[in-house]
């Protein structure tokens, strides 16, 4: 177990009102539910997870303070990390006007002849872990995910068999301690409709309703998101994709000791 760190709420009154109305969190309920989940972790010999307040709070918020759903998501989080130790997420450095994190997933950013999809997963999950750790507002307002299908080829599609898609969807909706408010597929080609239908087949009703598919030029991100948070390639002013990639590479390198510590937490019995 990790050292017990108490959470000190420094949120604004507006954020507290939002939490109470949308995530069932109040100053009175928060410590009670955190303690309940902590006790469950301590008593579960198969689960080695941090027990500090904010780690638990992230999962509680993602589940609107439903204790049983929180236990399930936390369990699935470590089960997923064990079964899939290695995907490509690139969070923007700034949050949008609603306090949400924007994550761009560039499906065709790699060469299928040189890299497997699974080879790219571990670094991407490391990036996402740090981003979620460092932005508390994301645990409140959630994430908007943008899957850019530009330059996708049949070779890329062949790297997405149903079992890989199932695991990805499971990670989004059942494992990570964050709520997805929108899942936008942009620059979609006709031939990827089959793949998109497979994605939908594994989604729950709520996530399906948050999926939006946009053909080329149908969605201009700079018209729906602030320019100052977007890379130049997407009509923004906040650097380039290359600079964003280098930024997250640097962040990951700076957090090596934290990642080593995180590797200690796991399920000892995969169910």
UniProtKB/TrEMBL annotation:
GO MF annotation terms: phosphatidylinositol bisphosphate binding
Signal sequence range: none
Assigned GO CC terms: membrane
Superkingdom as given in the UniProt entry: Eukaryota
Domain (CRAL-TRIO): residue spans on this chain: 77-242
Pfam families associated with the record: CRAL_TRIO (PF00650), CRAL_TRIO_N (PF03765)
Gene3D superfamilies: Alpha-tocopherol transfer (1.20.5.1200), CRAL-TRIO lipid binding domain (3.40.525.10), N-terminal domain of phosphatidylinositol transfer protein sec14p (1.10.8.20)
Protein name, entry field: Retinol-binding protein pinta-like isoform X2
Organism whose genome encodes this protein: Apis mellifera (Honeybee)
Recorded name of the encoding gene: LOC100576855
């Amino acid at each position: 177990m990790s050292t017990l760190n108490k959470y000190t709420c420094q949120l604004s009154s507006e954020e507290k009102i939002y939490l109470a109305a949308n995530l069932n969190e109040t100053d009175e309920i928060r410590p009670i539910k955190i303690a309940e989940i902590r006790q469950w972790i301590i008593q579960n010999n198969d689960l080695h997870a941090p027990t500090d307040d904010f780690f638990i709070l992230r999962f509680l918020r993602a589940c609107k303070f439903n204790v049983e759903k929180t236990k399930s998501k936390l369990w699935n989080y470590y089960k997923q990390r064990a079964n899939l130790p290695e995907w490509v997420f690139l969070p923007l450095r700034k949050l949008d006007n609603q306090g949400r994190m924007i994550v761009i997933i560039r499906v065709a950013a790699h060469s299928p002849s040189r890299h497997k999809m699974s080879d790219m997963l571990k670094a991407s999950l490391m990036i996402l872990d740090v981003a979620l750790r460092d932005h508390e507002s994301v645990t409140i307002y959630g994430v908007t995910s943008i899957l850019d299908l530009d330059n996708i080829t049949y070779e890329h599609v062949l790297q997405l068999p149903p079992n890989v898609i199932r695991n990805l969807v499971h990670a989004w909706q059942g494992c990570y301690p964050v709520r997805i408010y929108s899942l936008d597929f942009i620059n979609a080609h006709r031939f990827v409709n089959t793949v998109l239908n497979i994605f939908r087949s594994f989604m729950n009703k709520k996530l399906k309703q948050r999926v939006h598919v946009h053909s080329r030029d149908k969605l201009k991100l700079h018209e729906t998101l602030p320019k100052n948070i977007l890379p130049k390639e997407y009509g923004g002013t906040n650097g380039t994709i290359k600079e964003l990639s280098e930024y997250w590479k640097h962040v990951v390198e700076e957090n090596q000791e934290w990642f080593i510590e995180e590797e200690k937490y796991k399920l000892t019995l995969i169910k």
